[in-house]
Amino acid sequence: MKKRIILCALIATICSTHSFAQTHAFEMNSRLGMGINLGNVFEAPTLGGWGVDVDTSYFKEIKEKGFSSLRIPVRWSAHADEEAPYAIHQYFMDTIQWAVDLALANGLVAVINIHHYEDMMEEPEAHKARFLALWEQIANEFQHYSDSVYFELFNEPNTNFTSTLWNEYLAEALAVVRKTNPTRMVIIGTAEWGGVSGLQQLVLPNDENIILTLHYYEPFKFTHQGADWTGQTLPTGVTWNATTAQKNAIRTDMSIIKTYSDTHNVPVYIGEFGAIEYADDDSRARWIDFLRSVYEEYGFSASYWEFCSGFGIYNPVLNCYRTGMLQALTGFEEACDCTQFDTVIVSNSTFDKSTRPWILNVYETNGSSASIAAIDGKARIEIGAIGEESWHLQLLYSSFPVKQGYTYTFTFDAYASDPTTIGAMINRDGGDYASAVFINTNLTTEEQMFSQTFTYTEPTMPKARIAFDFGLTNAHYLYFDNIHVYETSPETSLVNAEKLSHCTLTIDNHSFSIEGNTIEMLTIYDLYGRMHYQKNYSNATTIEIENSMLPSGVSVLQVQTDRGITTIKRLK
Q: Does 3.40.190.10 match the CATH number of domain 359-488?
C-alpha cells in the first residue's frame, strides 16, 4: 500500500509539472498575439540595401496600431567572419540590440532569428559550425534580456538543407542556446521553406520552452502575383473573395497544423503570412481577416509579413496605411489611408525626406559606381565611375501601369554639375524594356523643367517604370526633383474633393473649408509639385481656402494637424 501511495504521488507530481510546462509555453505564445515583421531591413545583404532604413518612430507606431509583437529577421551571416571563431561584427550586433531595445521599450515582444543564410541552403554541412557559432554569440549577448525576447533558430530551411539535416542541426542549436538561456522561448520551424509540407518530417526536441512556427502564403498565385523573384512571374489581377471553396482550402491547411499542435502538445506561431502589393487591397484585407479569425479560433499567434515594403501595410514616404488591412489585422481605425494616393503615380516626387522608393541601379560588373542621397529636397546622384552603356547607371521608379488610350504627362526638374546629356523615359519594367516615351535630356548647371505629353496607343503595359539612364555622363553630380507622371483617361472628369482626408488630397480649383484638430500647417502645391502656398497656424481648427490661394489646374492640398486627421469640405 505504501509503495502504491508513493507511486501515485510521483505520478501526480510529474503530471503537475508537465501541465505547468504545457500551460507556460502556450501562455508565452499567446503573448506574441498578432505581430508584424520588420521586413527588408536587417535581412537585406547590407543595411539599407533593400530600400528600408528603419526609423525609431516605427516601433512606437507598430505598438500604437495594435500589434503585440515584432519579428525582426536578421541576416547575421552577412555581418560575421567566415573563419573560426566566426565573430559577429560588433556594429551589427549593436544595431540589432538597438532594435530589440526599442521594441521592448515600446511594449512589444521581440523575435530575432537567423534569416537568409543562403550558403547554409547550398552547403549545410560546410556551414554547420558557423551556424552554431552564430547562435552561441547571439545567445550570449541576449542572455540577460527579459523573457520578452524570443529566439527563432532558422528561417525556412530549403534546397540542400533537408528535413533530416534540419532535425539534427536544430537540436544542436537548441543545446547551444540552452547553455546560456535555459528557459528562454525558442521558436522552431519546418524545412521545405517553412511550410505545412515539411510538418510531418519535423522532430521537435523534448523541451518545455519551445514554440512551433510555420509560414503561410496560400493561395500562392494570389499572395505572390506579379512577384519577379519566385522563378516565375505570376499574373496579376488574382482576387480572393472569401468564397466557401477558398476558405475551406485554408481551413484544411490550418487543421493539419492544429492536429500536429494537439498531438505534440506544442503552441503554434504563424511567423509569416502576407499578400503582395500587386493584389488589390480589398482582397488582401478579406484574406487577412479570415486568417486572423482562424488563428484566433485555433489559438495560434501570428506575424504579418510585413510593415513597410512590398507586402507592407505602411508607406513611410507618404506616412499612411492600407487601412483595410490594418483593421483586419488589429482592429485599428482612423489611420491615414494610402488609398487616397492610389491615383498619384509617383509617390515620392520631391525627395523631401528620402529617396525611397526610388532605386539607384549600378552595374558594378562593368566598373560603374555611384551613390544617391536626398539633399535639400532633391535626389543627388554622385558619379564615381561611368559604365560602358547608358543603362549601366540608372535612377528607377517602378512599377505602375500605362494604359492603352490614356494620355500621360511626364515632367521633372533636373540639372548637373557640368553640362551633359542623359536619357529619361517611361518604359516596360522587364522583358524588352520597350519605351512608352523617351526624352533626350540636355542638362545644364541651371535647374530646368522637362516635360512631354503623349497618348499611349499600344496594348496596356501592366508594369512600367520611370528610368533615367546616365551611365555615360561626364558630370560628377546629377540632381532630380519634382518628378511626376499625370494620367488622363479618355473620359476626363474633375477630381472630387468632397470627401474625408486624413493627410493629402488632390483637389480641383474650387474653394474649401478645412476642419480638424489643431491645424499646424497648410501647404498647397501646383500642377508640377512646386510649393505654391504655405502657412503655419496655431490654435486654428477651421481654415477657409479661397480661390486666390489655389494655383490653376489640379493641385495638391496638404494639411498638418496635431493628430493628422482633417476633413476638407467644398464651400458653397
A: no
